[in-house]
Amino acid sequence: MARTNDLGCWDVRWMRVALVLAARGLGNVWPNPAVGCVVVKDGKVVGRGWTQAGGRPHAETEALGRAGDLAKGATAYVSLEPCDHHGVTPPCTEALIAAGIARCVIATRDPDPRVSGSGIKRLRDAGISVEEGVLLSEADALNAGYLKRVGERRPLITWKVASSLDGRIATGGGHSQWITGEPARRRAHLLRAEHDAVLIGSHTASVDRPRLTCRLKGLEQRSPVRIVADSRLQVPLTDPLVADAKSQPTWLLTLADADKTRKDAYRESGVDVIDVPADENGRLEMTAAMIELGGRGLTRLMVEGGGRIAASLLAAGLIDRIEWFRAPSVIGGDGISAAAALGLDRVDRAPRFERVDSVSLGEDVLESYVALA
Predict the structure, then answer these.
(1) Omega before 113 cis (within 30°)?
(2) What pLDDT is attached to residue 7?
(3) Model's pTM, two decimal places?
(4) pLDDT band at residue 6, thresholds of 50, 70 and 90?
(5) Is 73 left (phi over 0), alpha (psi -120 to 50) or beta?
(6) 11 near 39, Cβ under 8 Å?
């Protein structure tokens, strides 16, 4: 029989595999969490699974289905506490118990009030040995969007920037194609595939006319929901985002008192128009807007531009992560800044972030940051 410390090493190894599998669901399983499951028996993987598109089937069901009778007496490694409530599908705890799993190793608990420890209790009550907290921080980081939605009712918000060394995203005349090279642009498309939705402002929509789809070969079906913040409905009805809204989900955030006739025209084009309260300046109240998006199930939102919407989210303390692509060029003071004015009078009042990664992509550099509490 393996010693306790040996079991711990193997637990870490197989849980790491479960987390890699879980990551496959990012951007594709909302409003559910992205979960991975590995079933191991006698040191060999007999089943593996991850949450499928739209959140069903769950990772445990997929892994147990592949394991079949070999699941009896095996250990299941699950990146998130198995669900213990009846929804669209039966609880995963029931499936694990019925399969005869002898041991279950769980990375982190599910904060959903319908689960939140009840899944672990159900397994233990059935005589299954349960170990929890293996690679907990890694599991929480992977599902930070889901945890944010459950805990704060809004999605995790990532600001993606492609700029020159001096933080300019375009020339003074608005020319921006292309600041960064092909490797960086491919990585940006991968980020789109890993997020539930991508948000831009009305100015970016009107000037750049982006489609906001994922154009990586093999991942075309992983394009995110496209969202435009447009308080006064300025985006033309002929804009690409509106023109193909019936085939690619497109949402528009606007003020409740915006022109009703124009709202109806957007809706007829397939756009989902969402009313948001106004702030004291008559603009979209961004905290309320993000809670509205969380209420619709979004867990991971990427903000791609422009400077005004980035500034409004920064000012509200809503940016959780930054993915900053930096090109080895200088555009100068007449270029367009990545963020509009924040109205700061002191440096120590600026939003602060911690750099957690840096990678070279051709001639460019991608720096990853997380917000400091």
Answers:
(1) no
(2) 58
(3) 0.92
(4) low
(5) left
(6) no
